[in-house]
Structure formats: structure tokens, C-alpha cells
């Protein structure tokens, strides 16, 4: 069932989204050559604790996962597309890092992701990140009253095709609000004019995941969580929680 949020609920989600943005900023600030991924999780965890927020990631176990997720962020490096578990891996010069984070505050949830490079960037990585950002921007721009979910999906996939990037075919965005994952599903592939109609008060997490090799298939690590490109190519993942409003799409996960 799709829940349409009141304006009061959207304001509460904005506060949760602000905490998410702060946690992502803290993780990015902590990221440097030689820093362990676990330390990025600690930086984000400290922000959530200070804000009095709960992590919807910690202990989350969807049907595909063999164990509950142990940290508060996903930290995916280089060929990892998403769901990477922060561990003692030390970041190296030139790594491409994607951080995904959520926060639940006063019963409402925000979810967002960023991608960035550490140390000396590879030009191809910067292009991949920029392409993923363009896809997110296009998806958000399509999230207007009167459109449908398929218009968001089509906007994202159009950028992917233009940039010759692949995307995991069975992962995408989602509704969000009282829970991190709610209806409707927001595929990153789709046809315009199809799917659930967009109305004022609909809250969505839009999250393109681009794979530089151009393939849509992927593999899962033995941990049952981390998704990786089949061909070892790099990946980027960028996400915002947004609200569909009569005035246009409103991003809820900004500082």
C-alpha cells in the first residue's frame, strides 16, 4: 500500500533527511588514504547518536540476505556497486567510494547515498560519478505531479544508455516514510507514462547505480550483501529522498 504523506510528515522527513546528509558528510570527511572503512561507519554512527536518530540499516535483513546488516552505512569500493559492509579495508589512493546511509528520527526516515574518490582521482571515475549524478538529477526532475513512476525510470535509463553504463536490473529506488522501504518500487529502467501516478505527498528514494562496463548483471560476494560488477569495472551510487509536491520535487536529504 502506498502512503501519501501530509505536509507535516514531509517536514518531519526533512529533519530525518538532514541527519542523513550530516552523517554522509561526516563519512566523506573521514575518508582518506589509509583510513579503514570501519572508521567511516564510526563517523556516521556518531552523527546519528548525537541527533538521537536510529539507523534503519543496522540489523536490517531482507529476504536475500543471509545475516542482518551489521553497520549503519554501506561502504562500496571500486567494483562494488552497493551494500558493501564496512570492514578493516584501508582506502587506497584513487579508490572510488560509495556510501549509503539512512536515519530514522521521530518515526520518519531518510535515505541517501554519495559517491566520491579518495586521493588522486581517475578521470574515468569522475566521469562515472558525474553521469550517475546526471541520472539522479534527471530522475528527480521527472518526479512531478501528473507524471508516473515510469517517467522517473525512463529519465534515469536514458542517461545510462547515453553514457553506455549498466545498472543492476533488479535494484532501484523505493517509497519511503515510516519505513526505509515502502511501496512503490522505483525501477531504474522503465517506460514513460507507466506505473504508479505521482501525487503531492508521495515520498521516494531515487537511486541510480551506474556500472562503467555497460552490463546490467552483477555478482554477490560470499557475505551475501555486497554487489559487484561482473567484469570488475567501477561503479557509482548516488541517492536522495525526495517529496513530490505541487511546487515541484523537493529534496529532503540535503544539509
Brief synopsis:
The protein is an alpha+beta fold and 255 residues long. The chain has helices at 7-30, 37-51, 123-141, 149-162, and strands at residues 73-77, 80-82, 96-105, 108-117, 172-175, 182-187, 203-206, 209-211, 218-220, 227-229, 235-237, 240-243, 250-251.
Structure description:
With 255 residues, the protein is an alpha+beta fold. It is built from four helices and 13 strands. It is 28% helix and 24% strand. The strands form four sheets. It has a five-stranded antiparallel sheet. A three-stranded antiparallel sheet has the order 1-3-4. The chain has a three-stranded antiparallel sheet with strand order 2-10-9, with no helix packed on it. The chain starts with 6 loop residues before the first helix and ends with a strand.
Based on CA inertia axes, which overall geometry fits?
Answer: globular
- What integer value in Å does the Rg equal? 17 Å
Overall pLDDT level: 98
**H-E order:** HHEEEEHHEEEEEEEEE
How far is the first residue's CA from the last residue's CA? 30 Å
Low-confidence sequence ranges: none
* Helix content percent band: 25-40%
Task: Tell me the number of strands.
Answer: 13
Strand content: 15-25%
Largest sheet: 5 strands, antiparallel
* Spatial strand arrangement across the major sheet: 6-5-7-12-13
Separate helix tally: 4
Backbone structural class:
alpha+beta
